[in-house]
Design goal:
Blueprint lengths: L1 H7 L30 H8 L2 H10 L7 H7 L8 H29 L16 E4 L5 E5 L15 H10 L11 H14 L9 H10 L6 H17 L2 H11 L9 H9 L8 H10 L3 H4 L5 H17 L5 H9 L13 H16 L6 E5 L3 H22 L3 E7 L5 E5 L24 H9 L8 E4 L18 E4 H6 L3 H11 L1 H11 L20 H12 L10 E6 L4 E4 L11 H16 L14 E6 L5 E7 L4 E7 L14 H14 L32 H9 L19 H11 L3
Parallel strand pairs: 1-3
Antiparallel strand pairs: 1-2, 3-8, 4-5, 4-12, 6-7, 8-9, 10-11, 11-12
Helix pairs in contact: 6-12, 6-14, 8-9, 8-10, 12-14, 14-15, 16-26, 17-24, 18-20, 18-21, 18-23, 21-25
Length: about 725
């Protein structure tokens, strides 16, 4: 046993024969050396194990004090407060980096893969141009075309850098200095006083993210900003920004904003205007110059100061800009060019299909005639509208080939976007009578044919003349010039209401017409555009017309994707019939209801019209070079106070035509000279056939109509184009 204990070093307790020692004399406390691996224990094991145990229990050996044992152990160095702080900060920083990396990784995972990320295409802009190339309106989601930074004056992009991101050319997409400054400002002002977003971050938000203000969006914004900086140069990023940022009022990009607020392209803005645009993006609604000019000018002054501080503008130029701050351009007239733009957008896809890039649509509209027509209509309604209880109107001017030169769809586009020129169907009254007379002429009558002006009854209906007087026997020339209702009804009954409808359709009337006795007095509704288009057939000598407004469409790089080809519907009225009709319609301006509209030196022809209870008042008149129609009335059909075709509409018509024909060479009306009063012309039989050109086209489209009595010679011309057919279908609702 003893040998075994010595080998193992195990100390067994011994109990003396004289009894247990005094418990108070025993030191049973454990020191560090008593623990396994303790230095003292290790040292003790080298000596006599038994002796140590014996001495401890019996007290025969002097035990080592606990203090001595603790002193024998190695001491641990205590850190200073500063060291502890540094150590904790490092640890916290490392964990913070891990947390940030995790957050970034999480939000990055919510984005599309970087290798698949691409800048989304900007929605295409459609620039609608007048015939002289000037801008009428922009259409599309952006409100303006894309511009290159090289097109712009240098101070325009610098204005945005100065006020929005002065370290733009130095950072990598995120500006720590700007963020720190923004945090400090926001803390001191107890709210969101400043943002720390760079131009690159703003672009990232506009391109890829929503406008919500959350921490998640800001993190994604920063990630995308770094990607943009890696992918594009600084100038490319700035160009993208200038073409995408929102300026209010539906304007995206500097070109749209310059057109919207200053009525000029971005390349022509002044330094003061550039500063106003640069300051506008902070709060487009609050700082829009057309809504809050003082605030917009104050913000522009801040931009100018920043530009001077950074050396982006010379002090003298800044002082000049401050002395003459920018102001928004005043709206011109009633914005009637937008009615033209709406018409273009209604039919454009029939010409070019889906649009993938910015395009410029060249129209046939003459901006000078458009402006005169708008001013004439607005002035007349402003001066006399209240007295005559008339609130709305429309004007259409057209070349004899169908090219629209002016189109006014209402008094004020901002007040009402309803296009009365193309969409409003109203009763034309006596302005419809030329179709009745043409049907009669094509059946052998002449301007000198006599018919009775006397009371007439048709199935209980008793039409009366406007004056309620009757002249007895009159020539067709005088009956049309003085708009005698009884003669028109007699002629309508003589040729038949169906023939009247067919004749009107052949000349371009596409609205549904009721083949009844009252059709002779214009009781079926039509639009101003189709009525003017039908009269253009008289002005051009008898060739069928479909109105058109688009001349060509080009991409921004000049590539032509559509150009109107020479086309025509062919002859729809024989020359002899055209001459007789023009001679009779000329008399309307010589001695008839439109004589107030006569223009010295010009052969003019046309017809006035007034619907029942003075609800609608019309005049459509033409020279050999231009056709113009005017309608006045109220949208709700309320009667006017005796507005007739011969008063207010003729005044507007005369003002428009006088300006439009100024400087043009007067030309005779086709065929009219032969049939003028006292010309000794021999009444020749008009060709009786009814050419099936435009009428046949309309019959094919609407699926109705009666075949003509006789077949005419083949039409001269290429026939209607696909675009012409689509135009009819879209514009007039033909299925």
């Amino acid at each position: 046993m003893a040998k075994g204990r010595e080998r193992t070093g195990r100390v067994e307790p011994r109990f003396e024969a004289d009894g247990p020692a005094d418990p108070a004399s025993l030191d049973l406390r454990l020191s560090r050396g008593d623990r396994a691996g303790g230095d003292v224990a290790k040292g003790a094991s080298k000596g006599s194990s038994r002796g140590s145990a014996k001495g401890s229990i019996k007290g025969s050996s002097k035990p080592a004090p606990a203090r001595a044992l603790r002193a024998a152990a190695p001491r641990r160095r205590r850190r200073s407060f500063l060291g502890t702080l540094v150590y904790g900060t490092v640890i916290l920083g490392l964990w913070g980096l891990v947390a940030v990396a995790g957050i970034v990784a999480y939000h990055a995972s919510q984005l599309p893969p970087i290798d698949q990320l691409a800048v989304p295409k900007r929605p295409p802009n459609i620039a609608i141009l007048a015939s002289d190339g000037s801008l009428l309106a922009n259409r599309g989601e952006t409100g303006g075309r894309t511009v290159s930074i090289r097109e712009l004056p240098p101070y325009l992009p610098r204005a945005f850098v100065a006020i929005e991101d002065r370290r733009f050319y130095g950072h990598l997409g995120i500006d720590p200095v700007g963020i720190a400054r923004a945090i400090g400002q926001n803390l001191t002002r107890r709210g969101v006083a400043q943002g720390g977003s760079t131009l690159t971050q703003q672009l990232a938000k506009n391109l890829f993210l929503t406008q919500e203000r959350t921490a998640s969006r800001k993190i994604q914004e920063a990630i995308l900003a770094l990607w943009l900086e890696h992918k594009y140069t600084k100038d490319e990023i700035l160009e993208l920004y200038l073409n995408r940022v929102y300026f209010g009022a539906g304007a995206y990009g500097v070109e749209a904003a310059a057109q919207r607020y200053f009525a000029k392209p971005a390349k022509e803005v002044t330094l003061a205007e550039a500063a106003m645009l640069g300051g506008l993006v902070q709060a487009p609604s609050r700082l829009a110059p057309n809504r809050n000019l003082p605030a917009a000018q104050a913000r522009a002054a801040q931009v100018l100061a920043a530009m001077q501080e950074l050396g982006f503008a010379k002090p003298a130029d800044v002082q000049a800009a401050l002395a003459k701050p920018a102001k928004p351009a005043r709206a011109k007239g009633g914005g009637s060019a937008n009615y033209v733009a709406d018409l273009v957008m209604d039919v454009l896809d029939d010409y070019v299909g889906k649009i993938e890039t910015d395009v410029a649509v060249q129209t046939t509209v003459d901006p000078a005639i458009q402006a005169v027509a708008e001013r004439a209509l607005v002035d007349e309604l402003n001066q006399k509208g209240a007295r005559y209880n008339v609130g709305q109107g429309a004007v259409v001017s057209m070349r004899p080939d169908g090219a629209i030169r002016a189109l006014i769809g209402g008094r004020d586009y901002a007040q009402s976007q309803f296009n009365r020129a193309t969409t409003a169907k109203r009763q034309p009254g006596s302005a419809f009578k030329p179709f009745v007379y043409l049907a009669a002429v094509e059946r052998g009558l002449t301007p000198d044919t006599v018919r009775e002006d006397a009371p007439i009854t048709v199935k209980g209906w008793n039409p009366e003349n406007y004056s309620r007087n009757y002249s007895g026997p009159v020539t067709l020339r005088d009956a049309l010039a003085h708009s005698l209702n009884t003669v028109a009804v007699r002629l309508g009954q003589e040729v038949g209401p169906k023939a009247v409808v067919q004749t009107a359709q052949r000349l371009g009337i596409t609205s549904p017409l009721q083949a009844n006795a009252s059709i002779a007095l214009g009781t079926s509704e039509v639009t101003p555009l189709e009525l003017v288009g039908a009269y253009a057939t008289f002005a051009n000598g008898g060739m069928g017309v479909i109105p058109y407004v688009i001349a060509s469409v080009k991409t921004v790089d000049g590539r032509t994707i559509y150009k109107r080809a020479a086309s025509g519907l062919g002859r729809v009225i024989e020359p002899g019939a055209v001459g007789m009709m023009n001679a009779m319609l000329h008399e309307v301006f010589v001695s008839g209801t439109a004589k107030k509209g006569d223009i010295p030196g010009w052969d003019l022809a046309g017809k006035t019209g007034t619907s029942q209870d003075f609800r609608d008042a019309w005049v459509v008149g033409f020279s050999g070079t231009l056709v113009t129609g005017v309608w006045l009335g109220n949208d709700d059909g309320e009667p006017t106070k005796k507005v007739s075709g011969g008063n207010l509409p003729v005044e507007i018509w005369n003002r428009v035509m006088t300006a439009a024909l100024r400087g043009d060479k007067a030309v005779p009306l086709p065929g009219a000279a032969r049939w003028r009063r006292g010309s000794n012309a021999v009444a020749a039989a008009a060709a009786p056939g009814e050419p099936q050109t435009l009428g046949g086209l309309i019959d094919d489209l609407v699926g109705g109509g009666q075949p003509p009595a006789r077949q005419a010679p083949p039409p001269r011309g290429g026939g209607p184009t696909r675009e012409d057919k689509n135009f009819l279908e879209r514009l007039f609702g033909i299925d």
